[in-house]
Amino acid sequence: MLHKHARRFVSFVRWNLKTPRYIGKFFYSITRFNKQTVCLDNYNKNDCGELCKEFTKNSYIYIDKKFNIPELDFTPYKGTSTNTVFIDIRKYHWNEMKTLAVNILHDPEVASCIAKYFDGKPWLWNLSLNYSEPQGDGCMIDSQKWHFDYGDTKSIHIMAYFTEIDQKSGPFTFLTGEYSRRVKRNKLVIERFTDGELKGTLGSNILNKKRSLLGGRGDVFIADPCRLLHQGARCETQRVVMFMSFTNISPMTILPKKYSLSKDQRMELYEMYKEGENKKVFKKDFFV
Fold it and tell me: Which residues of 51-86 are buried (b: 16+ CB within 10 A; e: fewer)?
């Protein structure tokens, strides 16, 4: 019983308090100070492409090209995520995922955007394939509420759609920077708001200002969940999205092993990436 309560306490601290994350940022800034994640010969810090300019300005953007999404059978997962926001089915489809992830990283504009956004020191924080479906009890939890992410002071989500995402699919829904900046950040506790609480904070018409990243299978979006107040996975239909997440080489937090990429998976991505014909922007430390 004591062990159970201890685990709950650790979980509360990990997912709700900011102080451990500030300490983590300080720790990683020391231990990872000398790591180089970008090939400086293949990266011009003064050359910011149009994709990067638009993303830096708005904190979200659509990548105007289609990527080849593998045909997968999601039938075995039906009913498995009704009591949670999503389940990560990465381990069942790793080979297909890593091919898609490397193809995205080989795109010159995407690679330049990632490198530039983190001042030449980006890091692959995580890669997941999230399967979501309608909740059983209709009660919002976790990422279904309005919140900012605190994996770092700024981050990148690259979201590749494995299924069509419309308003019923629980799309990534957010307030633009103009409205997100109006939220007063709590210094100690990670903020989470219901729709009603958000109206009380930013005004009764604030939900009219929200935007959603809608798209078809193969569409890819980039967003910064640390700077955009957002919610997602309020599903009425099935949703499957691959998330590639990036932070600075010294993030505020690193996911527990059971949620994150293994060392072997990170090395697989690196080996596949370096074999490509495109100019290599990222070094080994970007992956591992």
Answer: bbeebeeebbbebeeebebeebeeeebeeebeeebb
Length in residues, the chain: 288
Q: What angle do CA 214, 169, 147 make, to 5 degrees?
A: 80
Alpha carbon distance 93, 79 (integer Å): 18
- The stretches of the chain forming alpha helices (DSSP H) are 2-16, 19-31, 50-58, 94-106, 108-117, 177-180, 195-202, 263-274, 284-287
pTM over 0.85: yes
List the one residue out of 148, 117, 101 whose CA is nearest residue 54.
117
Q: For the segment 6-59, what is each residue's pLDDT rounded down to a tens digit?
A: 777 777 777 789 999 999 999 999 999 889 999 877 777 777 789 999 999 999
What strands lie across the sheet with 239-248, from one edge to the other? 60-63, 220-223, 156-161, 239-248, 122-132, 87-88
d(CA 226, CA 86): 20
CATH of domain 2-287: 2.60.120
